[in-house]
Amino acid sequence: MKILRNELVNAPKLRSQKNFPIKDIEFIDITPTILQKEVFNEIIDKFYERLKDENLDYLVLPEARGFLFGSAVAQRLNVGIVPVRKKGKLPPNFVEVSFEYKKEYGKDVFELPKLVDDEYAGKRFYIIDDLYATGNTMKAIAEAIEGLSGVVVGMGAIVNIPSLNDDKNVYSLIDLEETND
Question: Considering 21, 28, 115, 119, which has the largest number of Cβ atoms within 10 A of its Cβ?
Answer without folding.
Answer: 28
